[in-house]
Amino acid sequence: MNRNNIAAFFAVILWLSAASETLTSVDPPADLQVTDLGHLGPLQIRWKAPLSLTSKKLCAVRYMLSYCNVDSTNCKRVITKQLEYTDGFNLNKGIQVKLQTLVKEQCTNGTEQQSDWVETVYWPPMDGHADSKVRDLQCVVYNLEHMNCVWQNGMSAPYDIKYRLYYWHEDLQHTMECDNYIENQGTNVGCHFHSDDLIEFSDFNICINGSSAMGPVRPAYYTLQLQDLVKVAAPDLINLTSSRTETIYIQWKPPVSKIKAHCLKYEVQFHGKSSNWQSKIIPDPVTSTTLNMTANAMYCVRVRATVNMFCADESIWSDWSSIRCLTEHSDSDDDATKRNIFVELIVLTALVLFVLMVCFSSIYTWIRWKRLIAKKKPNMLLNDDIKDVTKNIYIDC
Ligand SMILES: *[C@@H]1O[C@H](CO)[C@@H](O)[C@H](O)[C@H]1NC(C)=O
Ligand SMILES: *[C@@H]1O[C@H](CO)[C@@H](O)[C@H](O)[C@H]1NC(C)=O
Ligand SMILES: *[C@@H]1O[C@H](CO)[C@@H](O)[C@H](O)[C@H]1NC(C)=O
């Protein structure tokens, strides 16, 4: 070590001891500001370190941020070392932001020091009457191919209202306006989105505002997670077979879509001749199942699909597949009955023929016997009498 180095070393030691002198109180952060980033939800919160701490470079300073909508008690709390924080917000209401300084042990007498809170409330622009704002936005993502969003006019929307939908997600530089409105009697009642706008597992922010000659229209804000709004196409029933052991084997094809087969689950419904639909949920992404049925029942089956819990928090059921019915079982039983009747008929006919044959042959034998007696004893009976008797017998039979 040369002199200069030694001097520098002592300088650092001196500065360190000055910096770590214990603090008895901490000031709150300065200049708290909330800025709308123009993305229909995200706000940036910024602040400056308290002046009293700017000289104490070695103190571990952190900030506790607490924020929520004005009437909410469910505030989020975040601890950060940075001087800014960005999150998505519900811009339909004012937003309350609270901030305090935290200083760790090295700069204090051993316990963590907390400053008082500084607080601000951010009010998004809220022009127009609350009842002019759209109601009841409903969005459905069909098969991950396109999305339709529809809304209801505000309760007291002016007759000449023209609603407009703007949206933003993280793949977009700036907000976009809907380029394919769904119209009803000249007013915009919805928007059709194409597949390149569909983004999953990320906020999809929507603002519906509007204009009217009667005055400003209150904007409505929504934040969607599109993977929770998916309605898949109906699956295809492809095989319905019954076995001798009275089980029905059902097989279907997953809907044709971009949704991965392992993200699906199914519901099979079936009913017998006189019963109502019964359900069987197939939780796994398998595409076949078996059912036990009672003998002689005609069974009808249909299947529908939805996204399972591993791929979305919520989901919408698809339409039902076409209904397929199984009739082979009862058919084969009918056939058997028909076969039995046929066999019985043959046996009966044969029996009747047999009886008739026995009858004729015994008469024939009796006549021959009579004639034989007549030949042997010609005096006992006249020829004419024999003839008469024969006639009678024939008639009797
Ligand atoms: C540190 O100082 C605070 C007040 O500044 C006091 O309440 C606390 O008891 C002190 N703790 C210790 C360990 O000295
Ligand atoms: C509606 O919102 C969009 C996006 O924030 C904005 O550019 C537009 O000026 C607004 N229109 C009205 C009439 O407020
Ligand atoms: C239907 O399933 C049965 C039982 O697994 C099988 O024997 C039959 O070949 C299948 N039929 C078709 C058309 O896939």
In short:
By secondary structure, the chain is of the alpha+beta class. The chain has three helices and 24 strands. It has four domains: 120 residues, Immunoglobulins (Immunoglobulin-like); 101 residues, Immunoglobulin-like (Sandwich); 97 residues, Sandwich (Immunoglobulin-like), CATH 2.60.40; 64 residues.
Describe the overall structure:
It is built from three helices and 24 strands. It is an alpha+beta fold. The protein folds into four domains: 3-122, Immunoglobulins (Immunoglobulin-like), CATH 2.60.40; 130-230, Immunoglobulins (Immunoglobulin-like), CATH 2.60.40.10; 233-329, Sandwich (Immunoglobulin-like); 333-396. The strands form six sheets. Strands 3, 4, 6, 7 and 8 form a five-stranded antiparallel beta sheet that branches. Strands 13-14-10-9-17 form a five-stranded mixed beta sheet, with no helix packed on it. Helix 2 (328-376) packs antiparallel against helix 3.
